[in-house]
User: Which sequence fits this backbone?
């Protein structure tokens, strides 16, 4: 989030009585906006470095997600192909917004819109 977005989030959070502590509360802000109804799926393989970075990002920020190992689950691999049109991982689906790769600005935009 840029500085203006962060300032807006901080103001919104202060209005709700939540202390501002950076990105961890950014997710609380998103959760407040969406009523807690974020649906996040991440399609991964065990050896993918960027898959690990994406999962670490979500875990660090307390964002729940469902992981699908497309190296083991051919149905989920087919689903990923239908959604993204390609076989590279990670593929992240945030409430229907499909993001190919660990693209942090796109992930944060999708979370903000969720």
Assistant:
């Amino acid at each position: 989030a840029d500085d203006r977005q962060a300032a807006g989030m901080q103001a919104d959070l202060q209005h709700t009585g939540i202390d501002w502590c950076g990105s961890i509360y950014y997710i609380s802000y998103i959760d407040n906006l969406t009523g807690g109804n974020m649906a996040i799926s991440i399609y991964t393989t065990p050896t993918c470095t960027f898959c690990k970075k994406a999962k670490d990002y979500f875990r660090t920020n307390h964002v729940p997600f469902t992981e699908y190992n497309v190296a083991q689950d051919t149905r989920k691999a087919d689903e990923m192909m239908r959604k993204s049109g390609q076989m590279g991982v990670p593929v992240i689906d945030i409430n229907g917004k499909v993001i190919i790769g660990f693209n942090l600005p796109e992930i944060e935009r999708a979370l903000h819109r969720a």
About this structure: The longest helix spans residues 3-16. The longest strand covers residues 40-44.
